[in-house]
Amino acid sequence: MRALLKLAATGVAAASLLLGTAVLPASAADKPVNVTSVKVKPSNGSNGVSAKTKSYRVITKAKISGLDSTATIYANVYRGSKKVKSKVEIGWVSPNYDYLSGYPISVKSKWGRGAFTLKDIRVDYHGAIYADTNVTGGGFAMKSAIDGKLKYHNAIQVQAKGTKKTMKIGLRCYEKGGWEGCSGKRVHVQYKTDGHWKTRKTVRLNGQGLHTYSFTAGKKYSYRIKVDPGNKVVGGTTTASIKI
After folding, report:
1. Are the C-beta atoms of 209 and 149 separated by less than 8 Å?
2. Hey, which residues does 205 pair with through a beta bridge?
3. Which of the four, 12, 29, 207, 231, has the lowest number of CB atoms within 10 Å?
C-alpha cells in the first residue's frame, strides 16, 4: 500500500560623474523628486525562486514639486555589499501621472540567494542625476523554491508491511543554475495524532536530496514532511498522506 505526496505550495560612486551625467546633491534647490522610502515585494507573494527570473514590485514614496517633465527613478541592486546589477528602473513621475506603486522589476536567479537591497537611489530629470541619500527600506530576499524529486515530482512515498513502514523522501531546490537535489537539507518526518502534527524524527538528506527512513508503528497514521525555512531556502510542508 503506497501513498504519494506532492510538496505543498510552498553607494553612489565617489567619482563626480555617473553614467556620463553630473550627480547633484539631494538638497539641490531645483530637485523635483525627493525619494523617501522604497519597499520591494514579490509579485506572487513568495520569495521562492523557481525559474531563471522572478518578478518583484517596487513601492516608492516621494515628495514631488515643480515638475514640468518626466523624472525617472533608478537604483542599483546589491546582495550584501556586492553590487549585482546597475541602473534598474524602479518608477517614474510626470506632471500628470506617476508610476510609483507596484512598479515591476525582474531579478535573476544567477544573482544568488539571501538578502538583497535596492541602493544608490537617484532621479534622472532633464538629463541631470539627483542622488537621494536618505532613503529607507529597499530590502528583499530571494530563496530557492522546493519541489518533490521522486516520481511524478512527489516529495515522499510511504510503504507499509504490517507494522513496518518505509518512507522515501526526495526534495529538489532551485539553485542559481536550475533544479538540484536539496543536498544536506534537514527535514522533519511528522505524523498526525489527536488532531495535531508531531515530529517523529528529523533526518538529513544526502547529496542527491534523498533519504530512506524505516520505522515501526503499530497504529495507522497520516504522515508528512516539514521543511524549516532558511536564509536561502523556503520552507513548507507536504500534503498529508492517507492513514497507513
Report:
1. yes
2. none
3. 29
Give the position of cell 507596484.
102
Give every CB contact of residue 28 below 8 A, 6+ residues apart in sequence: 130
- φ, ψ of residue 153 to 5 degrees: the values are 60, 25
Asked if residue 42 lies in contact with residue 56, where contact means CB atoms within 8 angstroms, the answer is yes
- Smallest CA-to-CA distance from 145 within 105, 109, 187 is with 109
| Spatial distance between the Cα atoms of 93 and 139, rounded to a whole number of angstroms | 22
Phi then psi for residue 160, to 5 deg, are: -125, 135
Q: What average pLDDT score do residues 82-95 get?
A: 97
End-to-end, the C-alpha distance of the chain in Å comes to 8
What is residue 111's three-state secondary structure? helix
For β-strands 164-175 and 210-216, DSSP reports them as: antiparallel
Mind listing the domains of the chain with CATH numbers?
A: 2-6+145-237 (2.60.40), 31-143 (2.60.40)
CB 153 within 8 A of CB 172: no
Given this model, what pLDDT does residue 14 score?
A: 29
Q: How far is C-alpha 213 from the geometric centre of its chain's CA atoms? A: 30
Q: 216 is written with which cell numbers?
A: 515501526
Q: With CA atoms as reference, report the closest residue to 32 among 62, 65, 70.
A: 65
- How confident is the model over 13-49, as pLDDT tens digits? 322 223 334 455 444 445 789 999 999 999 999 999 9
- What global pTM score does this model have? 0.83
User: Contact 155/5 with Cβ under 8 angstroms?
Assistant: yes
- Give 9-22 pLDDT, tens digit per residue: 333 332 222 333 44
What count of other Cβ atoms lies within 10 Å of the Cβ of residue 155? 28
